[in-house]
Design goal:
It is built from seven helices and six strands, in the order H-E-E-H-E-H-E-H-E-H-E-H-H. With 182 residues, the chain is of the alpha/beta class.
């Protein structure tokens, strides 16, 4: 959908938020860049990528990036309480989890994750989490810059795109089928 739209109507609005608009070409470029970063972080087809955030431009970009990578997006309800969040993170087989420090409806998602995932604040390497409560979770990535413990900043995430060139991203994308879970 996105790639066809970018080829057919590159300058037509694809996504409109009160503070920002993206046309098909812009959204496709952002999604491809994030897909390359996901692949640079070791995301494989079928891996589960969690997103805990309110409605944001970056959420849509990540939805498309995850699909381009052949991975599966797990949208997490932004209104979950600590116990519900802990259950989902533990049982959804998440490899990566994206969140934001933009507070929505007076909820600090990172504080909620700290409560739900004991030991997160004390990890030595946010790129290689080892949490008993979420054994498959490798990293939590912020959708913006953050200096808080246990998480990867957005700029550090984006650096992983340099490890994967466009041809590698397209080769992976070419193996994604419409029948694949996304």
């Amino acid at each position: 959908l996105l790639l066809r739209g970018a080829a057919k109507w590159p300058d037509r609005d694809m996504l409109v938020f009160p503070e920002e608009r993206l046309n098909y070409a812009q959204l496709a470029a952002r999604a491809r860049e994030k897909a390359r970063a996901l692949q640079g972080m070791g995301v494989q087809p079928g891996d589960h990528i969690g997103i805990l955030a309110p409605n944001l431009m970056e959420l849509v970009e990540l939805l498309f990036a995850t699909a381009l990578s052949g991975a599966v997006t797990v949208l997490i309800n932004a209104r979950y309480k600590t116990s519900e969040l802990a259950y989902v993170v533990e049982n959804a087989d998440l490899k990566l989890l994206f969140t934001t420090n933009r507070i929505a409806d007076y909820v600090d998602f990172l504080d909620l994750l700290y409560e739900a995932l004991p030991g997160l604040q004390d990890v030595n390497d946010p790129l290689a989490l080892e949490l008993n409560s979420a054994p498959l979770l490798q990293s939590i990535i912020m959708m913006e810059e953050s200096e808080r413990p246990g998480v990867v900043s957005f700029s550090r995430f984006c650096e992983f795109a340099r490890q994967v060139d466009e041809d590698q991203m397209w080769a992976r994308r070419s193996r994604v089928r419409l029948k694949d879970p996304c």
